[in-house]
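Chapter summary example: a protein plus protoporphyrin IX containing FE.
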Amino acid sequence: MLVAMSLSLESIDIAAKSFWALPLSERDEAFTLLRRETPVFWSRPAESDLLPPEMSQKGFWSLTKFDDIRSASRNPKIFSSAEGISMEDMPKEITAMQSFMAMDAPRHTQLRGIAHQAFSPRNVKRLQGWIHGHARDVVKEMIPKGGADFVKEVSLKLPARIFASFFGLEGDDRLEKTVDAAMKFQAWNDPEVVGEGGPLALMAEVFMTLHQTARELAQERRENPGDDLMTWLVQAEFEGQKMTDEDIIAFFVLLPVAANDTTRHSSAHAVLALSQFPEQRALLVEDVEGRVDTAVEEILRWSSPVLHMRRTLLEDTVVRDVEMKAGDKVVLWYRSGNRDEDAWDRPFEFDITREKIPHLAFGGGGPHFCLGNALARQMLRSLLVEIYTQIPDIEAGEPDFLVANLMNGIKRLPATWTPAGG
Ligand code: HEM
């Protein structure tokens, strides 16, 4: 990527909220310059409304290179998740809501072990028909409209339906509230979503909603087991251990956020990228079944729906000759690693025919690698197959991006297409 002559290192401040309101292309340009000139760098504390200034946070290191992000992700003995996973510090109660995502071994291993089997590629393969059925329905419902906000019509609906089936919440009043709460959870930097009450009030509201639903559902499934994930969670054991109620609730709070938001944004990014690069769309449409798997991987690399995760150092360490101290925060910038010139051939080209795409969209490997990756891949795959066989001329307009440093989110995406038979 060419970096504008006017852009200087001194002018880049990723700790500022205003940086995250810049257009994506400008942020990519800034990270390109950072990767080139100072791939490991220190920032002042992130501007945040989540903690009062007197409890103010420490600054943080950033890793921007693919190899460094992978090494840190695979070294949890030094790079701990237990102190929090986002670049901003948060009240301890909110970190606790992130369940085992914000834990280290051995507790992380136990809790992830219990949840793992439900999300294993083998299990997801079993669910393939069911996930594909939801994708088919959602696309079928949108076709006659000929145009709409793609986020509202598809991106929000599909993960919500999958989530509903997963938890046996179909037709349940609590579904809409749960999905709405999940949507707000990662949006604490976006004034439109936060509203007048401020980010902490928003977080409290989200927490209460998810907490209450989780408690009720766990109780209901204990009394009347069903064929759903909550029944699994209340019954399953790993190495002789069961999840406690608090563990189940925290996992339930994490899940709609980890699953809904990420898949929602990635489906919007998919249609956006395939509209911005019509020659790539033509390639996909020419052979949807043959090219969809690499298209999914390239869309994940290209969009990087999760922009960062953070670790905290348990020991002094050195990355690229930069010395860091125990207790320092280190932020792993996945989108930057997914555009690292040393790791990728033509990183700024969107190419659905790339052969090997070992991207960082689900993390850099290691114990926290995305538990839902098989499910997310299957959902995107099904959606792309349905869209690009049924309405291949779908064309996205100007996206409205979420202001956020954690999620690469799209709030609205106008789109038009030719209704079937049109
Ligand atoms: C395109 C969609 C998705 C993306 C881009 C994504 C990305 C990520 C990333 C970057 C991490 C952190 C990795 C790390 O710290 O090393 C993560 C963790 C996680 N994801 Fe996903 N995710 C997606 C979909 C899902 C879905 C559908 C689910 C659930 C069904 C899910 C459940 C989780 C869980 C539970 C964790 C925590 C794992 C742990 O700490 O052990 N994700 N995801």
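Key point: Residues 73, 100-101, 112, 119, 254-255, 258-259, 262-263, 266, 305-306, 309, 361-364, 366, 368-372, 375-376 surround protoporphyrin IX containing FE (CB under 6 Å).
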